[in-house]
Amino acid sequence: ISAQLSDGPLQGKRILVTSGPTHEPIDPVRYIANRSSGAQGAAMARALRDLGAEVVFITGPATVRPPEGVQVVAVETAQQMSEAVEAALPVAAGVFAAAVSDWRVLNASDRKLKKSKDGLPVMEFAENPDILKRVSRMATGRPPLVVGFAAETNDVVEHATAKRLRKGCDWIVANDVSPATGIMGGSENAVVLISEEGAETWPRMGKDDVARQLAERMAVALAQ
Ligand code: CTP
Ligand code: CA
């Protein structure tokens, strides 16, 4: 059983976590989504809560349930997630574990598309706001610690290092999700923590253990 520590190292710190996929509507009954279960984000929220943090958990329509003892903000689209993140500021740290849809349907219909009358749908796309990048690059009120995630299938360290610089975040938690690793959909993860100091390869371990170790690292960084 896990409970919020009354004197944990993150006591009094407000931390936001984004999690899960986003759904981007095509019409009132259809949407574009991705395979994120929200497991990594939920594990992060739980681990941060267990160290005493006040967690704002901003989640898309995930398949795993949000942890107890966190403030849950349920959203559907990337735009809603972006607004919820802005409303949650200021925070001591932001953990961006959501699998945000890169695009939304620009010409979404406000009525259900009918196959007979409407023919084949033609979708136009617009790029969604990059939430992690926006927060990382805030001129004022930037959270002192901003952590992003990156699932890659090849050249993990190279891609994730470039991603960290492009986004402007402090850390990127990268993992190799190529089929040979068997990580996708499993309960274990093998991550590389990318920071200003370089790339640190962690041994393969349970996803909850990854979350606990990251939360502990965050507590150390925020204490400095
Ligand atoms: N992210 C975000 N908002 C977006 C897209 C991504 O906040 N619109 C965050 C994710 O939550 C994650 C990090 O950015 O923490 C990296 O996501 P990823 O999809 O790997 O990065 P992209 O810049 O979208 O690059 P790619 O083309 O590889 O998808
Ligand atoms: Ca993306």
UniProtKB/TrEMBL annotation:
It comes from the Bacteria. Pathway: Cofactor biosynthesis; coenzyme A biosynthesis; CoA from (R)-pantothenate: step 2/5; Cofactor biosynthesis; coenzyme A biosynthesis; CoA from (R)-pantothenate: step 3/5. GO terms for molecular function: ligase activity. Keywords: Decarboxylase, Flavoprotein, FMN, Ligase, Lyase, Magnesium, Metal-binding, Multifunctional enzyme. Signal peptide: none annotated. Its cofactor is FMN; Mg(2+). Residues 10-219 form the DNA/pantothenate metabolism flavoprotein C-terminal domain. Its EC number is 4.1.1.36, 6.3.2.5. Residues 15-224 are annotated as: Phosphopantothenate--cysteine ligase. Binds 1 FMN per subunit. It catalyses: N-[(R)-4-phosphopantothenoyl]-L-cysteine + H(+) = (R)-4'-phosphopantetheine + CO2; (R)-4'-phosphopantothenate + L-cysteine + CTP = N-[(R)-4-phosphopantothenoyl]-L-cysteine + CMP + diphosphate + H(+). CTP binds at D102, K112, P129, D130, I131, L132, F149, K163, K167. Catalyzes two steps in the biosynthesis of coenzyme A. In the first step cysteine is conjugated to 4'-phosphopantothenate to form 4-phosphopantothenoylcysteine, in the latter compound is decarboxylated to form 4'-phosphopantotheine. Catalyzes two sequential steps in the biosynthesis of coenzyme A. In the first step cysteine is conjugated to 4'-phosphopantothenate to form 4-phosphopantothenoylcysteine. In the second step the latter compound is decarboxylated to form 4'-phosphopantotheine. In the N-terminal section; belongs to the HFCD (homo-oligomeric flavin containing Cys decarboxylase) superfamily. This is Coenzyme A biosynthesis bifunctional protein CoaBC.
